[in-house]
Amino acid sequence: MKMVEKICPAKKQEFANICLARNTVVRRIEDVSLDIKRQLEAKGTEFDSFSLACDESTDASDTAQLLIFLRGVDNDMNVSEELLDLQSLKGQTRGTDLFVSVCSTVDDMKLQWNKVTGIITDGAPAVAGERSGLSSLVCNKFSEEGGSAIKLHCIIHQEVLCAKYMKYDNIMKPVIKTINYIRSKALCHRQFQQFLLDIQAEYGDVLYHTDVRWLSRGSALQRFFSLREEIGQFLTKKGQPMPQLNDPVWLADLGFLVDITRHLNALNTSLQGQNAVVSQLYSHIKAFRTKLLLFQRHLSQAQPNTAHFPSLQEIVTSFPQINISAQMTKYAADISSLVEEFQQRFRDFAAIEKEITLFSSPFSVDPDDAPDHLQLELIELQCDAEHRSRHQQLPLVNFYRQLDEGRFQAIRTFAKKMLSLFGSTYMCEKTFSVMNINKSRMRTRLSDSHLRDVLRIRTTALEPDMDYILQSRSQYHPSH
C-alpha cells in the first residue's frame, strides 16, 4: 500500500479492496528481503570497519536461531546497524557450530575478515568460552588475518547480572508470595482491585515480577511499596495478615531495595537503544559506579543522608523511635559490594578504557599515553583551536566526519574502529521479541527462510528499491 500511495494515491481504496493470495504475499516478502540483502552486500564493500553482535535463542518449534547483526562504518563515518543473517541450527549449538555459521554468513555477504574490529555476545558459555567459544574463535580467525579484534560481553547483560547481586531474599520472597496470592486467583484479584477502587488508592493493581523481564523487579517492588498499607488491610480482611508490614526493620529493607532497584532500572534504560556508541554506554556505567560511591559515603555517615533513597527516608520518618543505624551500615556495605561487582563484571570494557577515552575526549589525553601511530596527529589535533571548538559543539560522529582525511588519516581510522563497535546485544534482544511474535506457539510452521525474511524487513533501516525489484522480474504477477 505504501507503493500505491506513491504511484497512484487516488486509487488507494481500490487497491485496498483487493484480497491478496497467500502465495502473493509470500513472494512479495521474499522479493523485498532479497533486495535488502543485495543492498546490504553492496554497502558491505564500502565498510572500512565492522563488528558483529551474536546471540542465540530457541524459537517456538525448538529450533536454535542464531542472530548475527552487523555494525559497519564507511569512509564518511556513516554507521549502519543491520541484520546480517538468521542461522537456524538443527543440531548442536556448541561454539564451533556457531562459528561455522558466522563464517558462512560473513563469506556469503563477501565481507572481509581483516576489517572486523570486534564481536559482542551475551556471555553464554557457547559464545564466551575462552578456548572454544564463538567470540574466541572469531578473534582467532581475525588474528590469522594479521589483526586483533575486541571481544566484549553485552553491557546490558552485565548490568542485569550486577543487579541480581542485590538478592534480598528476605524481601523478595514475601513480596512475590503476596503478589501471587492476590493475582493467582481470579476472585481474589477482582476483590483486591475493587478494594483499591473503593478506597481511591493511588494505583489500581499490583504488578507481577518475572526474572526474564529485566525491569519488572523494580516496577513490582515500587508498586508494592506504594500500596503496602492497602495490601496490609486487604490481607488482614482476607484472614491472611502479613506481619512484615508492621516490622520497621523489614520495611526499611524494602525501602532500600526499592530505591537501589530504581537506580539500577534507570541505568538499564539508559543503556538500551539502537545505534548507541560504545563510549556513551561505558560513560553511563562509570557515572553509576561513581553514584554508588556517593551513596556509600552518605549512608556511612554518623547521621546517614538518605536524600537519594526517598522510600527508605519515608520509612525512617514514619518510625522515628526506631534506631536503624545498624541497617544503614549494612546498606553501605551492600553498596560497597555492588561497586566491587561492577568492577569485576566490566573488566572487558575497562581493558579498552584508554581507547574509549581517546576516542571520546581526544583533547584531554596525553599524547604519550596514545598509541605511537596516533601521537603526531593527536598533537596536531590538540594544537588546532578550530578543531577544539568543533569538538565542543558537534556530536562526536560529526566531529570525526569533518576531520581532513589527508591530515588526520590515522585518527579517522581509529575513530571508525571505535564507532563500529557494538556496546550491547540490544538489537538481538529486540529482534528475538519480533521473532516470538511472528513465530508463536500458534504459528510454528513458519519456515526458517521466511522467518529470516520477516526479521530482515522488520529490522532494516534500508528502503526497498521497488524499481529494481520490478525490473528484475520477468512477470509482475505470476499465476498461483
Topology:
Layout lengths: L1 H6 L4 H5 L5 H23 L2 E12 L5 E11 L4 E11 L5 H14 L7 E6 L3 H4 L5 H11 L5 E4 L1 H10 L4 H16 L1 H13 L17 H11 L1 H10 L10 H24 L6 H23 L9 H9 L6 H21 L1 H5 L1 H8 L11 H11 L2 H9 L2 H6 L7 H11 L6 H13 L9 H12 L6 H6 L9
Parallel strand pairs: 1-4, 4-5
Antiparallel strand pairs: 1-2, 2-3
Number of DSSP strand runs = 5
Provide the succession of SSEs.
HHHEEEHEHHEHHHHHHHHHHHHHHHHHH
- Percent helix among the residues? 55-70%
Assembly form of the protein: single chain
Mean pLDDT: 90
Number of helices: 24
How would a textbook summarize the main sheet?
A: 5 strands, mixed
Low-confidence stretches: none
Describe it for me?
With about 475 residues, the chain is an alpha/beta fold. It has 3 domains: about 1-155 and about 425-470, no CATH class; about 160-340, no CATH class; about 350-420, no CATH class. Helix content is about 60%, strand content about 10%. The protein contains 24 helices and 5 strands. The protein has a 5-stranded mixed beta sheet, sandwiched between helices. A hairpin with a 5-residue loop joins strand 1 (about 45-60) and strand 2 (about 65-75). Helix 13 crosses helix 17. It starts with a helix and ends in a 9-residue tail after the last helix. The mean pLDDT is about 90.
